[in-house]
Amino acid sequence: MAQQILRVKADTFLKLRPEQSSGLTPEELHSVRAGTTFELHSYAYADANGSFNGHIKIALKNNTIRGLNTWFVYSLHAQVEMDGEIVYPREDEEAVHILKITRNTVFKRRPLQSTVLSADELFEVVKGQDFRLHSYAYADNQGDFSSHIRVALRSQQDYIRGLSTWYVYDKHAYVEFDGDVVYPLDDPDTPVLTVKENTLFKRRPLASSSLPASETYAVPKGTALKLHSYAYQDAQGNFNNHVRVALKHERDYIQQLSTWYVFNGHAQITMGDRVVYPLPPTTAPAPVPALTPIPAPTPVPSPVPLYRGRSFRLPGNTSTFYTDQPIIPGGSFTWGEATRDATRIPANTTIVNNIIRLARELQKARNQIGRPFLVNSWYRPPAINQAVGGAINSQHLYGSAVDLQIPGFSGRRVANAVMAWWPGGVGIYSNMPDVIHLDVGSRRMWGF
Questions:
Q1: Cβ pair 210, 268 in contact under 8 A
Q2: Apex 233 CA angle, 270 and 372, nearest 5
Q3: Is 149 within 8 Å of 138 (Cβ atoms)?
Q4: Cα–Cα distance for residue pair 381/407, rounded to 1 Å
């Protein structure tokens, strides 16, 4: 029979409740030293009511402490092994999430308006601060947190007044994983501006030569920005061959301004899978034929480039690839998603082939569910994987794994939809409730 072992990685406490040690009585704590091991009957990091506030729940086998066999331990201080293999944390359970503060705001001990909280329940934080997280949540079994994010700070040195768990208003912060926002998620029909050529954003819709440098901002080809709104004309007419865009997220504001103009020949706006700007050409009415029609020369259309994203090369291929090019013909997943907009070029042909294989399986899943998949993390070179805290032998290193989200679906709901046929790993995470991990490695499941 397989043997499950809890291995303690840092001096810590076993607890009778999954709370911070400072909030528990001495009778609810049992001190353990790094390197201690316990044989387990079972373990869990969540139940039907949600996660255990960043803790693992363990049931000791053939042993009790003070006559009790069920305890909790802080999950960053321990790991679970089965016959010598680490089974918890799995894959990106170890990865680091970052809370980004976008406005001067306050951390709160309760998800209420600041005016009804006492001074010792508030802590001021300033725009631009980052916090490494152990976990986050926006709801529990009692409901949501009134437009707040509940965060558990990862490192003890970051604790505020000795406390790791706080709330922050969700319009003043967001959670990032591997450079992508994982909370809050945008609606899949949020307009997205893609810049098709190196260009300038402008404060007024005029030729750039007539504007001072303070009213222009250089934007490279391939840049994609989510929009609050856009317009190509107003009551006074069009914008001199420009489109006016209002950026959605404060983190994307340029010179702290959201509204800019861009030359319409350098811009494309999509909503989901639809191009909504430039507008499709209108069909003119057929002309009335003359009595003696004179055949006109057939115009030779200018070749339209198939892809307009950033170009790059892949190992083992002589052709050029583009970030907006589907990985498989007619597919929904692009090389830009797999390579983080061509900033993570695969090191060899094995990784390239793994990306293609994973894209084929992902397309089956997307066709089954029928909704857009938002890729958070696909191929990660070793340095990137280490920087985000990924597992040492993560499938992301080989292009074989992806972390993704589907707006309106929990990770568990997506997993339940595909697990019967998915050929590799399926994982859900206590610290990423909306994210699912899918890979084409060995068939295995975790988090259920």
A1: no
A2: 10
A3: yes
A4: 27
Q: Round to whole Å and give the CA distance between 215 and 311.
A: 29
**What is d(CA 258, CA 256) in angstroms, rounded to the nearest whole number?**
7
Token readout for 320 is: 């050029």
The answer to whether 186 touches 252, Cβ cutoff 8 Å, is: no
Q: What's the CA gap between 434 and 414, in Å, rounded?
A: 9
Give me the sign of the Cα torsion angle 189, 190, 196, 202. positive
Give the Cα-Cα-Cα angle 358, 362, 367 (nearest 5 degrees).
Answer: 155
Nearest one of 339, 314, 305, 327 to 197, comparing CA atoms: 305
**What does the block give as tokens for 23?**
């909030």
3-class secondary structure for the chain? CCCEEEEECCCEEEECCCCCHHHCCHHHEEEECCCCEEEEEEEECEECCEECCCEEEEEECCCCECCECEEEEEHHHEEEEECCEEEECCHHHHCCEEEEECCCEEEECCCCCHHHCCHHHEEEECCCCEEEEEEEECEECCEECCCEEEEEECCHHHCECCECEEEEECCCEEEEECCEEEECCCCCCCCEEEECCCEEEECCCCCHHHCCHHHEEEECCCCEEEEEEEECEECCEECCCEEEEEECCHHHCECCECEEEEEHHHEEEEECCEEEECCCCCCCCCCCCCCCCCCCCCCCCCCCCCCCCCEECCCCCCCCEECCCECCCCCCCEHHHHCCCCCCCCCCHHHHHHHHHHHHHHHHHHHHHCCCCEEEECCCCHHHHHHCCCCCCCHHHHCCEEEEECCCCCHHHHHHHHCCCCCCEEEECCCCCCCEEEECCCCEEECC
Per the rule left: phi > 0, alpha: psi between -120 and 50, beta: everything else, 206 is beta
Alpha-carbon distance of 14 to 32, in angstroms, equals 7
- Estimate to the nearest angstrom the gap between the alpha carbon of 357 and the chain centroid: 22
Q: How far apart are CA 302 and CA 385, in angstroms?
A: 44
- Stated pTM of the model: 0.68
pLDDT attached to residue 288: 57
Question: Hey, what are 136's tokens?
Answer: 């986050």
Question: Rounded to 10 degrees, what is the CA torsion of 252, 255, 261, 267?
Answer: -40
Q: What is the mean pLDDT of each run of 10 residues along the chain (448 residues)?
A: 86 92 91 95 74 85 93 90 78 74 95 94 95 84 84 87 92 88 81 92 94 94 89 87 92 90 93 83 59 63 68 93 93 94 94 97 95 92 86 90 90 92 87 86 79
Decide if 442 contacts 427 (C-beta within 8 A). Answer: no
